[in-house]
Amino acid sequence: MKTKSVPGQGIPPMARLPEAEIIDFPQTVRQYLDGTYDLICILGPTASGKTGYAVRLAGEISDMAGKGLIPEGTRAEIISADSRQVYRGMDIGTGKDLSEYGNVPYHLTDIVDAGTKYNIYEYQRDFEKVWNEIRERGNVPILCGGSGLYIEAATMGYSLPDVPANPELRARLEEIDTESLVRMLASMKKLHNSTDYDTRKRLIRAIEIAVYEAEHPVNRTASLPKNTYFIGTLVSREERNERIDKRLDARLEEGMIDEVKRLLDKGIKAEDLIYYGLEYKFVTLYVTGVLGYGEMRHLLATAIHQFAKRQMTWFRGMERKGVKIHWVKI
Question: What's the angle, vertex CA 41, arms to CA 61 and CA 71, rounded to 5?
């Protein structure tokens, strides 16, 4: 017997947004200075206003110092937690908006050349160095970004090994099916969660690390934040997608296509730009003639919408692990 379909049936309900809070930020700054916290982190999905909010909070810290509410000369310094803003020359597509920082010092932006493959270990190492230097200056470090893996590497005490790439091993592993790779990894280390094998790329890298560690002593990072105060920038799905579309069109008008052409003209391979994903993937496919302009614009907007959704899923997952995120509407 056939059953009549009901409109909307089988479609998962839209995830509810977390509750917004009103934060006593001056109190948070005082708690940082008395040692309750050792880092302030501003996180959120793309197009949720993270950078502007972080810069505004940095201004509040300077105002507090000017009024004598905290030690004179104390200021904030912003550390980027964006996996693509580390690359020089990738400005429009990554939305660096450096003018937005004003006189607020910022770090881990424009630190490696486009075309290279900067990894999570390098980020954690560089974050550790910058974070310690800011604290030694008596200033307040604000980590700001939307790359969940980078944020967790900086704030959740992961000790990541410095293991070089092994192209020959990777080539051999690529010939093995995913299920067999998972069993291989499980035989080499205890699998605490699925993040080691949620993609083939991470799975192969995890095996590469395990093989290397079995044969070599490994240097690991040590001094990382223990008590981070997390603030999440909250925006509805509809408003977020509207902002994404508006921002995408603005970036296309500002010269994002020319930016990709310049990178290609510098000798950066098309496949390397495609590797960076999102804007660089789809604009490169357009520039190289694989996609038409309209198709590129549509596919890119859809991909960014999906990316923002995955970011929120990651942050809600952090909460399920016990991380307290103070969500704010800005």
Answer: 25
